[in-house]
Amino acid sequence: MHSSRRHRTVRSRAGGHDVVATRAGTPGAPAYVLVHGIGVSGRYFGPLTDELAEVGDVLVPDLPGFGRSARPREVLSIAAHARVVAALVAEHGLVAPVVVGHSMGCQIVAELLAVHPGTAARGVLVGPVTNTRERTAVRQGMRLLQDGAHEPMRVNAMITADYVRCGPRRYAATLPHMLDYPLAERLGDATAPVVLVRGENDPIAPRYWLDELAAAAPTVGVAEVPDSGHVAMYTEPAVVADLCRGVTC
């Protein structure tokens, strides 16, 4: 459970967009930026935020068009979202943060590392998408339902509420950007080391897909979180926090 005393809301103008974020921890401590996936917001990072905030400075933005942030007329590409994250890092004075992505957020982190060198010290990609063997909306939808059947009811309810808030039009317009993104190619261009993380039971990010991604660059490592699905950072936050800190892997 996260503490409202330590979690505070911050508002920024970043990359031409009004962005609302959660800040937690101690300014000046090792920094972390947590980047959420398609259709949702940063709130499912709550348990991981608590873990990292014990000895860190954590920034959790709601990307433009999602969660509490303003809804621009246009739908942002992965590259545009990466520009927003880079601007947030600069705006908040974060030095060499570890940038953590989940699902589509992994693509944004990969873009950040490839195109904005020096912005981050390291990337951690949890449940990266999109598996090259299932790069269609139908297949991804099926895998999402398959995963949801085994996730905690609380996180399913949170994600569903965020999907409703996002709306079907924005979700559908964002989806092609996610499906078409060349993640392996971008990891090959990354300017910082990356750790790929999957829940042991995640049907959206199968092990063979992570192995394919790891082959794209010598600085990429792979880790599995036991007894977890796609939202491993929610169900096993302490394990994922150790990966973010570089304690394991």
TrEMBL record:
Gene3D superfamilies: alpha/beta hydrolase (3.40.50.1820). Residues 33-242 form the AB hydrolase-1 domain. InterPro entries: AB_hydrolase_1, AB_hydrolase_fold, AB_hydrolase_sf. The keyword Hydrolase applies. Pfam families: Abhydrolase_6. GO terms for cellular component: membrane. GO terms for biological process: acylglycerol catabolic process. One of its GO terms (molecular function) is monoacylglycerol lipase activity. It comes from the Bacteria. Keywords: Hydrolase. PANTHER family: MONOACYLGLYCEROL LIPASE (PTHR43798), MONOACYLGLYCEROL LIPASE ABHD6 (PTHR43798:SF5). This is Alpha/beta hydrolase.
